Amino acid sequence: MNPEQQQAILTIALLAAFADGINDDREREEIRRLAESLGSEPGAPNLAGLYREVLLKRVDLTAAAAVLNDPKHRQLAYEMAVCVCDADGSTTEAERQFLTELSRTLSLDAGVTDPLNRQAAAMADLIETAAPVTASASVVAATPNIPEAELDRSILNYAILNGALELLPQSWASMAVIPLQIKMVYGIGKIHGYELDQSHIRELLATLGVGLTSQYLEQFGRKLLGGLLGKVTGGMGKQLGQAATGVAFSFATTYALGQVARRYYAGGRQMNTTLLQESFQNLLGPAKEMQARLLPQIQQKASSLDMGQIMTMVRGG
Predict the structure, then answer these.
(1) Alpha-carbon distance 272 to 56, whole Å?
(2) Fewer C-beta neighbours within 10 Å, C or N terminus of the chain?
(3) pTM
(4) What is the mean pLDDT of residues 269-294?
């Protein structure tokens, strides 16, 4: 896949992200940041400029689709758009209309799009089941009801699992990172006496700069630019160097999120926005160093993962 084709697919990804008229300033800022970050990699398209063009509605969907002559690239573009629209766990009417138009523009029939829609919907359902939509009033525990060392291991295991997902070539793998993070935060709150709901957890993630849509876009973009998407699992070793940045991103983000959540709920949710953000950023660097040491474990975990196993992990107790 050449840079022009990569840019066309990422254009469609950004159009999908804004299809619902996203109006959360934090999410917009995260999408802008990731565009600049991904665009700074050697050989990458000018994504910062592309972000501005999409935001100002100067990008034409038909023109982007015309660059994708290979049916596999067209299918990948549609699959990515479906996952972006479902990344927050729900698809709006505006997003459904966008996907309908996209399938028509890409000349994809129902035999291609229907399985992709079902697969993405199944993963989106995990976001809704990772934590309750509503929850009972919280009762704060003075101390967590499990040993600190066990809580540490749990956070580390989530980070290893999410790092491993970035080594898988399927688009759904990156979608699974988000519900696992939600489930992790829900569990951390619960052991400190808080019964959290979806809205609270989403708000915490957004405050830390870990938006649902922007995070999936970053994971997908790194896979696309790294050449990992569409590769067979058996070729994982050859693609490891290219995927390393994505692995570090998901591992570090999950680990830092878990540790910040642990401090936040242990302290009775008294940390303000600035302190939360500073704590999260300060943990990212050490977490990336930890990921490098644990890479063999992450690789081993990736070799055993499949969609059914991931869904069971999220829906299980």
Answers:
(1) 34
(2) C
(3) 0.80
(4) 92
Is domain 3-124 annotated with CATH 2.60.40?
A: no
The per-residue pLDDT for range 192-220, each reduced to its tens digit, is: 888 888 888 888 988 888 877 777 777 77
- Cα torsion through 281, 286, 288, 289, rounded to 10: 160
Whole-number Å distance between alpha carbons of 138 and 266: 13
Domain span(s) for CATH 1.10.3680 in the chain: 3-124
Q: Say how far apart CA 287 and CA 291 lie, in whole Å.
A: 6
Which amino acid belongs to residue 193?
G
Mean per-residue pLDDT over the chain, rounded? 80
DSSP class of 133: S
Cα–Cα distance between 22 and 16 in angstroms, integer?
A: 10
Token pair of 115 as six digits: 């399985």
Q: Tell me the Ramachandran region of residue 157: left when phi exceeds 0, alpha when psi lies from -120 to 50, beta otherwise.
A: alpha
Q: What is the per-residue pLDDT across 54-97, written as a single tens digit (0 to 9) for each?
A: 877 888 899 999 999 999 899 888 988 888 888 777 778 888 89
Q: Per-residue pLDDT for 234 more than 60? A: no
The pair of structure tokens assigned to 105 is 């523009």
CA distances 138 to 147, 148, 195, 205, 268, Å, are 21, 21, 5, 19, 11
**What pLDDT does residue 238 have?**
40
